[in-house]
Design goal:
Length: 432
């Protein structure tokens, strides 16, 4: 089904422009459409080669991620290309000038065309509108305060949380992580975000593979990515007298910088990160990012390709309050994660609608870049890596739990909560 490109921009930037450059250009134009001016093509199943040929037959200068080792393509590699093909996810990012000049929309109208959809590329952002940092002691106080304030609705005993918070975060306790015998050994986890502080002392000696897709070094100068990596794959025993905050502490970590240090990215940078993660055989892909846009066909295609390859993509539902789940979490092939408060009620900021599962997202203690090292944040961004980490533990427990089977296991074992599925999905994610 063809989708007509929007009318979001006048000037169209090339593929080598960074998300920050694109965003600045859009802001200068006063454009509020969320469109970058570029486009995303989705190919029909098993028609990527035909799609590349179709693009080249129209005179497009095409580059493929497969032209680079481990498909770790960067903005510098793209140069003046018209189209970047991402074969693992069955998509291509095309400059707006190329789309118009080469009449690619006409390709979609043909019944035997390898091109299935053409849609605008959108901006995406870290799902951290309600982020804030606090010290460890203050976080423990807030947990107790929240439980007292919501005594009539609490589903976890206050004494249980307060007694264990010194040994593990409230989120890990709620997800039954501390008693689990699994650590995610051998399960490759990709965190696509703002990068990572690779010099963080809690991660000394850990196995990292990284790449940037936004024209900036992978080193995290934002903090969002480091916090998410910490929850999903942080250490079992952090340096110093610090509570445990990480789940899959033995998992190899793949850090894809798909959001800039300002927290902005594009559909293309995110798809490139997914493509890279799949090429590197990651089993779990965690994305604490999104945009308040309708379902994007490219994300649905990417999620479907991931499931077919035995990988699971989990994404933040969004911090839109009572509004709908945003992209990419609203795609049917991507697991959408809602946020829970410390009393296991839905967070007020957590989006409503397409939600598969819920996880702790309020007052989540984890790693942040030096010199602070640790801090507390809130958002569906913080809930998502809880699901990613637990997914890695389940994947380690059974080699058959991959892709759709892993998705099903997470839903089947979730702790049921007395709230609509549109708020919490199957319930609170649980570790094996």
């Amino acid at each position: 089904m063809a989708q007509n490109p929007g009318n979001g921009s006048g000037d169209v930037s090339g593929l080598s422009s960074s998300p920050d450059e694109l965003l600045q250009a859009v802001q200068e134009r006063g454009d509020e459409s969320m469109e970058t001016g570029r486009y995303v093509i989705s190919f029909r199943v098993d028609a990527e080669d035909g799609g590349v040929q179709a693009l080249r037959s129209q005179g497009c200068n095409v580059i493929s991620a497969r032209d680079f080792g481990d498909q770790a393509v960067t903005l510098e590699d793209i140069g003046d290309s018209d189209a970047l093909v991402l074969p693992e996810v069955g998509c291509a990012v095309v400059s707006g000038n190329a789309l118009q000049a080469h009449e690619l929309l006409a390709q979609v109208e043909s019944a035997d065309s390898p091109i299935e959809t053409v849609e605008p590329e959108y901006f995406a952002f870290s799902e951290s509108d309600v982020d804030y940092l606090r010290g460890f002691n203050r976080a423990a106080e807030v947990i107790a305060d929240d439980l007292r304030m919501n005594g009539g609705r609490e589903l976890v005993m206050e004494d249980e949380i307060v007694a264990q918070v010194a040994g593990a975060t409230w989120g890990l306790v709620a997800c039954k992580v501390p008693p689990s015998t699994r650590g995610g050994a051998g399960i490759r986890v990709a965190v696509l975000d703002t990068g990572m502080d690779f010099g963080h002392p809690d991660f000394k000696g850990r196995e990292f593979v990284s790449n940037t897709f936004v024209g900036q070094p992978v080193q995290d100068l934002h903090s969002h990515g480091t916090h998410c990596v910490g929850t999903a794959c942080g250490p079992k025993a952090p340096v110093g007298a610090i509570q445990r905050y990480g789940i899959a502490y033995r998992a190899p970590i793949f850090v894809g910088k798909v959001l800039s240090n300002a927290g902005s990215g594009t559909t293309g940078s995110i798809l490139a990160g997914i493509d890279w993660a799949l090429a590197n055989r990651c089993v779990v892909i965690s994305m604490s990012l999104g945009a308040p846009t309708p379902v994007q066909a490219a994300y649905t295609t990417a999620g479907e390709r991931a499931l077919r390859r035995g990988a699971l993509i989990v994404a933040a539902a969004g911090n839109h309050g009572p509004l709908f789940t945003g992209a990419p979490a609203n795609s049917p092939t991507i697991m959408s994660v809602a946020s829970l408060d410390t009393n296991l009620t839905p967070s007020s900021f957590s989006a409503i609608g397409k939600v598969e599962i819920a996880a702790p997202g309020r007052d989540v203690f984890s790693s942040v870049p030096r010199p602070s090292l640790h801090g507390t944040k809130s958002g569906t961004s913080m809930a998502t890596p809880h699901v990613a980490g637990c997914a890695a533990l389940w994947a380690e427990s059974d080699v058959n739990l991959r892709g759709a089977k892993l998705w099903k296991r997470l839903e089947e074992t979730a702790k049921r909560l007395p709230f609509p599925a549109s708020r919490v999905g199957a319930g609170l994610v649980q570790a094996p």
